[in-house]
TrEMBL record, chain A:
This is Amino acid/amide ABC transporter membrane protein 1, HAAT family. One of its GO terms (biological process) is amino acid transport. The chain crosses the membrane at residues 16-35, 42-64, 84-114, 135-153, 190-216, 237-258, 270-298, 310-328. The keyword Cell membrane applies. It is a multi-pass membrane protein. It is found in: Cell membrane. The keyword Transmembrane helix applies. Pfam families: BPD_transp_2 (PF02653). GO terms for cellular component: plasma membrane. GO terms for molecular function: transmembrane transporter activity. It comes from Poseidonocella sedimentorum.
From TrEMBL, chain B:
GO terms for biological process: D-alanine transmembrane transport; L-alanine transport; L-isoleucine import across plasma membrane; L-valine import across plasma membrane. One of its GO terms (molecular function) is L-valine transmembrane transporter activity. GO terms for cellular component: plasma membrane. It comes from Poseidonocella sedimentorum. Coiled coil: none annotated. Signal peptide: none annotated. InterPro entries: AAA+_ATPase (IPR003593), ABC_AA/LPS_Transport (IPR051120), ABC_transporter-like_ATP-bd (IPR003439), BCA_ABC_TP_C (IPR032823), P-loop_NTPase (IPR027417). This is Amino acid/amide ABC transporter ATP-binding protein 1, HAAT family.
Automatic annotation (TrEMBL), chain C:
The keyword Membrane applies. It comes from the Bacteria. It comes from Poseidonocella sedimentorum. One of its GO terms (cellular component) is plasma membrane. It is a multi-pass membrane protein. The chain crosses the membrane at residues 9-26, 46-63, 94-116, 123-144, 200-220, 247-267, 287-306, 327-347, 353-374. InterPro entries: ABC_transp_permease (IPR001851), LivM-like (IPR043428). This is Amino acid/amide ABC transporter membrane protein 2, HAAT family. It is found in: Cell membrane. Coiled coil: none annotated. GO terms for molecular function: branched-chain amino acid transmembrane transporter activity. Keywords: Cell membrane, Membrane, Transmembrane, Transmembrane helix.
Length: 343, 251, 400
């Protein structure tokens, strides 16, 4: 029992990331009908928003501290971040410590802008082109974005820690009444899961309860009719692209403490996220979320020692294997609609 | 005993009875029209004949053999060709290539891998394709890309492709839908000529009464998934049940 | 010629001449000159040109003709590599058995993968092929290590059985050969400042590439090729014309898988090692890039695309800051720095950026790839020449 709970928990953070990226992919696919291969790059850029903000916050000027000396006996030179000067030392240190969560505020406008620019500047021209062309041009864009980030930030992963308060783990098992020290779970992972749940809930609520969301959902079902009603669906779809980009970006921001970001992390996630979207069913938002968590958790179960002893290597291929089985038995994925992408 | 025998066919989509006890017999070398108001089940019936849909109950026999459970390409190989409401052609290919494909299908069956022959050197195929094109006055368009032609020409090409297979039964699904008057008349003339010159049975679904009455030998009126009447065009014209079905009960 | 129409025969002859003369054509700059680093006429790179050319030609038979976009073709290349290297370990260092077996094994695998994947179309097909390839990659890396060598990959060893070869006692791994002709053997021709390397391995690979190219022309022009284009154009019409699209598509899939296996086998024949990296999805993406960049659905496009990408990968990537400074040394210092700073992100380690941009530009503006670009330029020249002729004609009249 403990082992099962542990694996479910372990699967949650990866599953959350899959679900968030797949959600954004599906939003774009469902609204605009575009298969966006650059979506992983948006996830990656989100992560680098966090890197950028923490770099900005730690921008320092050097002062000479007369009271202390270095090992040569000269007065010590100390780098003091500018934020110390603005907010005082303790508040400044707290701000730097909380760089990753603060990056959310930074990433939202950046990602929405990037998404809108991408849609207006490039994707817009591909609505009428075949899906293969959309895949190819966004694939090219993904390479470009990736290389731009590599140029500015280098090829090595950049560690970006979580705030001090959330480093370390806690004994989740003891909280549930199991023996202590069996289910140990890092704080940040539970935060990531809660964060993902909030974002997913927010997106669904937005689509469900606002007029804007209602129009977008109607547009997803039948674009032409909505346009005939005199509603400017294009502008809303552009904003949806921005929203999807923001969702991917935020998933990236919050993922930085779990995995140090590097320029190709987006592609690694994208391939799996596409599998997730297809398993969930192209164009189905609940399907994307469900498949994200299911596959994340399955992956973590497959890496259990007991499973690996019976089926060596299964943890490497479980997602693909499940995808193949689902696609062959349920052609439209878990919750896909009829007639989507079947041409 | 007709070449096409439809017996007690039922088809249900959820709560909707699309076809209810349809019986239909099409005699060889005649033109049989199926008419009816929107939603009468005409297209559903057609789809049951070509293997796109499988009826819930009943039988569909073509020339003494059941077509049920066979895939569309198998049914086509039995001798049934279909013309679609919007022309289905190979848009990216040239007219000549469009014509060669049914000729290959007729000669080689559903699959044959001639990967090492030169398509341009298949004399028998090219001759056959050219003769049909000539017959339909399209030979001057042979090098055109199919998608660049007018709608009327696309329709003509689709019919030519079907004829190249020498089918025994030609199914036409609203062949003049969305056409200008002149194109419609051309198509009627073409179909009349085909009917006169070839040993071919034609089943046609049509909204345009002008087309129906110029072509059909017999007419079946379908309403709400069931055949109302079947008779010659002259009798159908004045039939009270038909007027009722088309104009509503008030009439 | 060879059952080709005159236009195709001309294309084949031109390609053959280019391929034969490649060691000279690709080395236009004298050794030791500043521009010598743009020379691509060294055996390693030329071998890669033709081998990836084969890979892309095969991929084009599937994607170009039927429109089915496979994102997993690198798996067949990798499987071909493993098969070939096992033949070299077990049988002989002669490359013939290795290459034949690599084609057969890749064909069998692609039959299995294609049979399953082709039940779906569109993006579902792409994802299925991707999933199969990634599975092959992961398994080759982990569980199948006894067969694949895992992370280190496979190389021929001194104590391999090689039952058909005569025993060697000098403790050196014998080199791959074609009935005694070693693949690494080269002749260098020095002409003035120029050095041209004629390499046996390259010419063997080039011959195989020409044969592959010839077969692909035959397929394009055959009734089978027409059927494949019909699959891409309208499967519904095909079905209602009494044709079954499935076996046609599967045959195209298997043929392109065999081409990939052939490329994999040749790779091993030229450079005796095989690793799982070759099967990673980015390798599958690369062949997609090659085909699109060169011109999808055209005969020569994939070869051009493969050449362009491999050239960039090997030549563009070697340009570093120092070299750039050297080139622009004549300019005033400030300007030199600005220009170098502007160019630098696109070369050296950043060559992928150029590739990505180029690829995007091609997809957006030139859906027919380099081939379409060439045709447009040719058309432009034709149009230009005509008015000039007309004008010169007029101007001569009064003079007479």
């Amino acid at each position: 029992m403990e082992a099962i709970i542990l694996q479910v928990l372990n699967g949650l953070d990866k599953g959350s990331a899959y679900a968030l990226i797949a959600l954004g992919l599906t939003l774009i696919f469902g609204t605009l009908g575009v298969v966006n291969f650059a979506h992983g790059a948006l996830f990656m850029i989100g992560a680098f928003c966090a890197v950028t903000l923490s770099r900005i916050l730690t921008l320092s000027h050097t002062i000479i501290d007369e009271t202390r000396t270095d090992f040569l006996g000269n007065p010590l030179k100390v780098d003091v971040p500018y934020v110390y000067g603005w907010f005082g030392e303790s508040a400044g240190a707290a701000i730097i410590d909380w760089a990753v969560p603060l990056s959310i505020l930074f990433a939202i406008p950046v990602m929405i802008t990037l998404g809108v620019v991408m849609e207006r500047g490039l994707i817009k021209h591909f609505y009428k082109r075949p899906h293969a062309d959309q895949i190819l041009v966004t694939f090219g864009l993904a390479i470009v974005l990736q290389e731009v980030i590599k140029y500015f930030y280098g090829a090595n992963p950049i560690p970006t820690p979580a705030p001090d308060a959330f480093r370390g783990s806690f004994d989740f098992g003891a909280m549930l009444g199991f023996d202590p020290n069996i289910i140990i779970y890092p704080y940040w992972r539970i935060i990531y899961f809660v964060f993902a749940a909030i974002i997913i809930g927010g997106v669904f609520a937005f689509l469900q309860f606002t007029t804007f969301g209602m129009v977008v959902r109607a547009g997803m079902a039948d674009r032409e009719t909505v346009q005939l009603l005199g509603i400017n669906i294009d502008r809303r779809f552009t904003l949806m692209f921005g929203l999807a980009a923001a969702v991917a970006g935020l998933a990236g921001v919050m993922y930085t403490p779990i995995n140090s970001p590097n320029y190709h992390m987006g592609m690694d996630f994208l391939v799996l996220s596409f599998v997730v979207v297809v398993v969930g069913g192209m164009g189905s938002l609940p399907g994307a979320v469900l498949a994200g968590f299911v596959l994340g958790i399955l992956e973590s179960f497959a890496s259990m020692r007991e499973v690996l002893e019976v089926l060596p290597g299964i943890n490497q291929i479980i997602i693909y294997l499940v995808a193949i089985i689902i696609l062959l038995t349920r052609p439209r994925g878990l919750m896909g609609r009829k007639g989507v992408m079947e041409d | 005993m007709g070449i096409l025998e439809v017996k007690n066919v039922n088809k249900r989509f959820g709560g909707l009875q699309a076809l209810g006890d349809v019986n239909l017999s099409v005699a060889e070398n005649t033109c049989h029209a199926i008419i009816g108001p929107n939603g009468a089940g005409k297209s559903t019936l057609l789809n049951c004949l070509v293997g796109k849909l499988i009826p819930d109950t009943g039988s569909v026999m073509f020339d003494g053999q059941s077509v049920l459970g066979r895939s569309p390409h198998e049914i086509n190989q039995m001798g049934i060709s279909r013309v679609f409401q919007t022309p289905e052609i190979f848009g990216e290919l040239s007219v000549m290539e469009n014509m060669m494909i049914p000729c290959f299908a007729r000669r080689d069956g559903a699959f044959r891998m001639h990967a090492y022959k030169d398509a341009g050197a298949e004399r028998d195929i090219i001759d056959r394709a050219e003769s049909v094109l000539e017959d339909l006055n399209m030979i001057d368009k042979r090098e055109m890309t199919a998608s660049s032609m007018s709608r009327g020409d696309k329709r003509r090409l689709e019919i030519a492709m079907c004829l190249a297979q020498e089918p025994r039964l030609l199914l036409l699904d609203e062949p003049t839908a969305g056409m200008a008057r002149a194109d419609t008349n051309n198509t009627i003339d073409l179909l009349k000529r085909i009917k006169a010159e070839r040993d071919i049975t034609i089943a046609i679904i049509e909204h345009d009464m002008h087309v129906v009455f110029s072509l059909a030998d017999r007419i079946t009126v379908l309403a709400q998934g069931t055949p109302l009447v079947e008779d010659t065009p002259d009798k159908i014209k004045g039939h009270p049940k038909v007027r009722e079905a088309y104009l509503g009960e008030a009439a | 010629m060879f059952g080709l129409n005159p236009k195709d025969a001309r294309l084949l002859i031109i390609v053959a001449i280019m391929v034969v003369a490649a060691p000279v054509l690709l080395n236009p700059f004298p050794e030791g000159s500043n521009l010598a680093q743009f020379n691509a006429g060294y055996p390693d790179l030329m071998q890669r040109f033709v081998i990836f050319g084969i890979f892309a030609i095969g991929f084009n038979i599937l994607f170009g003709l039927t429109g089915y976009l496979s994102f997993g073709h690198a798996a067949f290349l990798g499987i071909g590599s493993y098969a070939a290297i096992w033949m070299m370990k077990l049988l002989t260092m002669n490359i013939i058995p290795g290459i034949i077996v690599s084609v057969i094994v890749a064909g069998v695998f692609s039959l299995a993968v294609g049979w399953i994947s082709l039940r779906r179309s569109g993006i579902y097909f792409s994802i299925l092929t991707l999933a199969f390839a990634q599975m092959c990659y992961s398994l080759a890396y982990s569980v199948l290590t006894p067969i694949t060598g895992g992370e280190t990959g496979l190389q021929p060893k001194v104590n391999d059985p090689r039952i058909l070869d005569a025993a060697t006692n000098d403790g050196v791994v014998p080199k791959t050969n074609l009935f005694g002709l070693e693949m690494t053997s080269s002749t260098e021709i020095v002409m003035g400042g120029w050095v041209f390397t004629l390499n046996a391995g390259y010419y063997v690979a080039a011959l195989v590439m020409l044969i592959s190219f010839y077969i692909s022309i035959r397929i394009f022009r055959s009734p089978f090729g027409v059927m494949l284009r019909a699959v891409k154009s309208n499967q519904q019409r095909m079905n209602y014309t009494g044709l079954n699209p499935k076996p046609y598509t599967l045959a195209a899939f298997v043929i392109s898988g065999m081409y990939a296996g052939l490329a994999g086998g040749l790779m091993v024949a030229m450079d005796t090692q095989a690793g799982a990296d070759r099967m990673f999805w980015t390798a599958s993406g690369e062949v997609v890039l090659m085909t699109i960049l060169g011109g999808v659905g055209t005969l020569i496009g994939p070869v051009l695309g493969a050449g362009a990408i491999k050239y960039m990968e090997n030549i563009l990537s070697k340009i570093n800051k120092d070299i750039l400074h050297q080139w622009f040394a004549l300019l005033p210092d400030g300007l030199e720095d600005v220009i170098v700073a502007l160019i630098y992100p696109f070369v050296g380690k950043g060559w992928h950026l150029t590739l990505g941009l180029l690829f995007m530009l091609v997809v957006i503006f030139l859906p027919g790839g380099l081939v379409e670009g060439g045709q447009r330029i040719a058309a432009l020249f034709k149009r230009k020449r005509k008015p000039e002729d007309a004008r010169s004609g007029k101007s001569t009249e009064p003079a007479e």
